[in-house]
Amino acid sequence: MTNRMKSASAIIVNTMDFLEQATLSKIKENYHAPIFTIGPFHKLAPNICSSLFMEDANCIPWLNKQAQKSVIYVSFGSLASINEQELIETAWGLSNSKQPFLWAVRPGLVQGSEWIESLPNGFKESVGGRGCIVKWKPQKEVLAHIDVGLKLQNKLERGHTERAIKRLMVDAEGEEIRKKAMKLKEKAVMFGK
Which is more confidently placed, 18 or 29? Predict the structure, then answer.
């Protein structure tokens, strides 16, 4: 959030209240303008592509070959930026987790890099067919395949990334997290109709 928002007469957010209550509460604490949640915005114009990036549908055949509920989806979104070391740590965390993953690495994500040329030597070989890296994904199609994504923030270190993935995809606690995520997904679909 920027200082310019402090003078805004209103804040419009593409979300649903029940999905991000804690975040919306923090925004309300820091910004005194009324907040309007209008999500899911893509439901208002479903045939319009809202991405500024060229979507790479090559991940869909790869996803179709994976066991149901087995793929971890990793994306830093369209605005974030990371450094080369954070890319390397994320890559090794994904590799070391031994879990199948779809990783959206958009051009410009890594400071000073065009795309994935900064991936460490041996990474692609260690992953083999267990991972799929795309520049940008066709979001609706991917989300139809993926049950749970992983938001990586703050500590981009391979051990932390590996533990977060195993906690979500392998540990018993992850089963509960995935069930809650599915309930939210179903609620969002119902709300968006």
Answer: 29
